[in-house]
Design goal:
The complex is a heterodimer of chains A (259) and B (160). In chain A, the strands form two sheets. A six-stranded antiparallel beta barrel of chain A has the order 1-2-5-4-3-12. A six-stranded antiparallel beta barrel of chain A has the order 6-7-8-11-10-9. Chain A is 36% helix and 31% strand. Chain A has three helices and twelve strands. Chain A has 259 residues and is an alpha+beta fold. Chain B has 160 residues and is mostly helical. Chain B contains six helices and no strands. The chains are: A alpha+beta (259), B mainly alpha (160). The interface between A and B is large, with 46 and 40 residues.
Chain lengths: 259, 160
């Protein structure tokens, strides 16, 4: 009998979690309490384990790390010069857009955070950063390799994002051919995304897949992945394009939320 | 006083298991399987206690796992509660609860929980999910064995 009561209670708690997540885009009371008790300690444990691993790696690979560090410093210096020029062009574009009364492009402001938890079965990550830092629902999350996901739930100091590999997420994407091929991309598995298009334009394995920019909050041109297979579904008049995502996930990884 | 200390101790174990699952387990993947300390803890407590208590340990683990993941709390609660409830019943069979039998029971409990969860929240690739669930069950059963040994000493000396 208690088993049945607990299953019903679990069902009720699950409903509450769903309602808060879908309608209010925030965590329910129970999830919030659990996370506030567990996350600080688990994050410290993870950081400690990583630090220990880095210490031993530093001892055994110091020569290679020194070379890599110098090469990265040189690349950073070049990128900073490039960034200066890019910032100037961006300012000019903003000015011109405001002169002809067009709205500003999304994704210009970056809020940095760290991945502090990962739920693989639910395709969700928890990021250190929430309403206090200016994060809002549906903002894109990117890493150095490309698009990771979209903010789903925002609490005061943490937020959760749905990964692009989740079957619950669809994103406008394009393949930059001439003319560009656009469609809706959705997650299929942790290593595969599916893009459905109708245009009969030549697409090759290895073609990059980028965000299309047709959605309000998703800037165009962010790398999502690469084409690995093209399947013609002649019965439906569409083409199914399998895409391998470019992002690589790791705990404590730095990510940026675009606003 | 004893009951209070017991509750505190079990609460601390659940906290440690959740911290381990979130902070350390993702960095300790072995052949696509990972340690599931929360489920192992609930399973270990379940086979040392009555079915009603077993259901409760599973429910608690499900609430914590669902809260941490931010989704599917109902699925976690139902699968963990059911598996731990069944494990408690299975532990009452007339089999001598030695190390090997207990290890099998723990592996079975964890695997059953993950299979029930699979039916409630279908993964994209069932084959690879089952493979990683099996490896996770084997790895986690050793954590569960340590918990069972401790719980047996505490609970079966005074039936709860």
């Amino acid at each position: 009998m208690l088993w049945l009561v607990l299953c019903v209670a679990g069902f009720g708690l699950g409903r509450l979690q769903n309602v808060e997540r879908v309608e209010n885009k925030r965590s329910d009371v129970v999830s919030n309490t659990v996370k506030s008790v567990i996350l600080p300690s688990s994050h410290s444990l993870g950081t400690g384990m990583e630090g220990t691993g880095n210490f031993w790696a530093g001892l055994t690979q110091s020569g290679r790390l020194k070379e890599e560090n110098e090469s990265l410093r040189a690349q950073l210096a070049q990128l900073q010069l490039y960034q200066l020029e890019a910032d100037q062009y961006e300012a000019q574009i903003s000015q011109l857009r405001s002169l002809i009364e067009l709205p500003d492009l999304p994704g210009k402001e970056k809020i940095f955070g760290q991945i502090i938890d990962y739920a693989p079965h639910e395709s969700r990550i928890t990021i250190a950063g929430g309403r206090k830092q200016g994060i809002a629902p549906n903002l894109p999350v990117i890493s150095a390799q490309g698009l990771i996901g979209r903010i789903d739930v925002v609490d005061e100091t943490t937020s959760q994002a749905l990964l692009i590999t989740s079957p619950r997420l669809s994103i406008g994407a394009k393949i930059p051919r001439n003319p560009p091929v656009a469609g809706l991309l959705r997650g299929e598995s942790p290593e595969s995304l599916v893009l459905t298009v109708v245009e009969n334009i030549k697409i090759e394995v290895g073609d990059p897949v980028l965000t299309s920019g047709y959605a309000t909050l998703m800037p165009p041109g962010i790398k999502i992945g690469e084409v690995v297979e093209v399947v013609d579904a002649n019965d439906y008049g569409t083409r199914i394009i399998k895409v391998y995502p470019s992002f690589r996930l790791a705990l404590n990884q730095e990510v940026a939320i675009l606003r | 006083m004893r009951v209070f200390l017991l509750a505190l101790g079990i609460g601390l174990l659940y906290w440690l298991a959740a911290v381990f699952d979130s902070g350390a387990a993702p960095r300790m993947i072995i052949v696509s399987g990972r340690f599931e300390a929360l489920l192992a803890l609930a399973a270990g407590l379940s086979i040392a206690t009555r079915p009603a208590a077993g259901a409760f340990w599973g429910f608690l683990a499900g609430v914590i796992a669902g809260g941490m993941s931010g989704a599917n709390m109902a699925h976690y609660c139902i699968s963990y509660t059911t598996a731990c409830f069944l494990a408690s019943y299975a532990a009452r069979l007339p089999l001598e609860q030695k190390g090997g039998i207990a290890l099998l029971e723990l592996t079975g409990t964890i695997l059953v929980a993950k299979i029930i969860y699979m039916f409630l929240a279908a993964p994209p690739n069932v084959g690879s999910y089952l493979a990683s669930a099996s490896i996770s069950a084997i790895l986690s059963s050793f954590i569960g064995l340590a918990v069972y040994a401790l719980a047996r000493r505490i609970f079966q000396s005074k039936e709860v």
